[in-house]
Amino acid sequence: MALAIRDVREHDLDAVLALNNAAGRSILALDAVQLRFFYEHAEYFRVAEIDGHLAGFLVALRNGGDYDSPNYRWFCEHYESFVYIDRIVIANAYRRHGLGRVFYCDVTSYAEVRVPLLTCEVFLEPRDDVVVLFHGTYGFQEVGQQRMGEHGPHVSLLAKDLPSYAFVRETWLDHGGLPDVPWLAERQLPLLPESLPRRLAGERRP
C-alpha cells in the first residue's frame, strides 16, 4: 500500500467536495464556494492518497483570517496565535487504519514551527466517544464549550500546547525566520514540482 500526504491540488476539489458531503452528520456540509475559500486561504490543506486514490483530507487555518466559523472566531477571541483544524475527513473504505493519526502528526509538524497552540472542536451533539477519546489521547484539552448558532450543535472547544514552538521561536523565528526547506513552506507558496518526491506519511523530518 503506497500512502502519500500532499498539498491539495485544484483538480482534487470535486473529489474533496464529494468526500466531505458524504461524511455524515459529524462533518458540516460544504458547497463549491466554501471549498474554494479553503483552497485559496487555508494555510494547511492536504490530502491523503492511497495507491492513487483520494483517502482523506484535513483543512487547517492560522489565526487572523477572515473566516466566519463561530468556533474559529471563538479561538480568535481567546488566543493570539494558533492553528485551527477546521475539518478532517477519511473515506469510509480507509477508516480505522490510522489515517487520522497520520494527518494529526502531519498538521502538528506544520503547526509546531509556527504557533504555540493547535486547536479544534468536537461535536457533543451527536457525541462520538471515539472522536472524544482520540483527541484526549492526542493531548488535546477542553478549553470551552459553545453552541454553534441558536439552533446549531453543542461543541467542545479543544486546544493542544505545542512545546517545541518555544525552541523554534528562539532559534529561528526571532532571528530571520524558518530555514528555506520545502516541508516548511507556507500553503500559499508554489507547490513542489510534480517531479519531486512526495512526503510519505511517517517520514522523519530534519
TrEMBL record:
Stored SUPFAM superfamilies: Acyl-CoA N-acyltransferases (Nat)
GO function terms (MF aspect): acyltransferase activity
Naturally occurring in which organism (per UniProt): Fulvimonas yonginensis
Stored InterPro entries: Acyl_CoA_acyltransferase, GNAT_dom
Record's protein name: GNAT family N-acetyltransferase
Class of this enzyme: transferase
N-acetyltransferase domain span: 3-163
CDD domains linked to this entry: NAT_SF
The protein's Enzyme Commission number: 2.3.1.-
Keyword tags: Acyltransferase, Transferase
Domain of life the protein comes from: Bacteria
